[in-house]
Write a structure and sequence with these properties.
This protein is of the alpha/beta class. The protein has eight helices and 14 strands. The chain starts with a strand and ends in an 8-residue tail after the last strand.
């Protein structure tokens, strides 16, 4: 058994910790993501690394936003951390930490974790769908992560459902909450509070939510047609709400029952694991 230092690079915070190769979390913490430069970020990560060296780490694993080429160690695309892109960032980390470093897209990391120890354990074909500011995810097919030619596999939010409307614009948590705010006039509404509101008090919400669940079901169905997955693992803040998950399951079943010709309905599970949290 070996110990690994892990970092999860996020737009608002950097989460870090030490885990074993058996999946046991030995330490966890976080700090605010620097806004100014990569140099500031690297210095802070190196400071944390030195604090965690007492665990005798054998390597460093990094979860990052963007189109991560895990082979070249370059992060393409765009993300909420603009200064991490388009240079050999993996090489810089290896030179800094003087240990082997692996870096992968954060959505892929989430899917791999669920495949390893979570809701996808002992299954060969897994699709992860992350509902947040957009819709992302990952595909594991025959026990192999699919990266794609440009390392953008899993960018499900760009799928088109209604004319030129993307899945993200129709079903992201932010999109749904913004529409619900206009109906309810509740300025501090979020994805958790939304699904606890009374439809009797806000009857217009019922129409909004029915359309939301229908489009969410259509997206899942289209992905199932393409990949024939064993399971869809749904994550993101709203997925922790049992009301949301129950309603999604019911609407998905109703949508499938409305179709004449269809593929087999997939198993839907909520994510079992969470990112390292303080």
């Amino acid at each position: 058994m070996k110990n690994i230092i892990v970092f999860d690079l996020g737009g608002s915070s950097i989460k870090y910790g030490v885990i074993t190769t058996l999946g046991e979390i030995l330490f966890k913490g976080s700090f605010q993501t620097p806004k100014d430069s990569f140099e500031t970020l690297l210095n802070k990560m190196f400071e944390i690394f030195n604090l965690l060296k007492k665990f005798n780490p054998q390597g460093v694993s990094i979860s990052s936003p963007g189109a991560v080429n895990s082979s070249s160690g370059i992060i393409k695309g765009i993300s909420a951390i603009p200064y991490i892109h388009n240079f050999e960032i993996k090489k810089v980390f290896e030179e800094t930490f003087q240990l082997p470093v692996e870096i992968e897209n954060d959505g892929n990391c989430s899917a791999l974790a669920e495949f390893w120890l979570g809701s996808g354990k002992n299954l060969k074909n897994v699709i992860s769908v992350v509902l947040g500011s957009g819709i992302g995810g990952a595909v594991i097919q025959n026990e192999q992560l699919i990266n794609g030619k440009t390392f953008q596999s899993g960018e499900f939010g760009y799928m088109l459902l209604e004319e030129n409307k993307t899945w993200s614009s129709l079903c992201s948590t932010i999109s749904l909450v913004e529409q619900a705010k206009k109906i309810t006039k509740i300025n501090d509404l979020d994805g958790i509070k939304l699904f606890n509101l009374s439809l009797i008090e806000y009857p217009e919400l019922e129409t909004l939510l029915k359309k939301y669940y229908l489009n969410l079901s259509k997206g899942i169905y289209n992905l199932q047609c393409a990949f024939d997955s064993d399971v869809f693992i749904i994550s993101g803040g709203i997925s922790s709400n049992p009301i949301f998950f129950e309603n999604l399951t019911n609407h998905l079943n109703n949508f499938y029952n409305s179709l004449d010709d269809k593929v087999e309905i997939p198993l839907i599970k909520k994510a079992f694991l969470k990112m390292i949290q303080t």
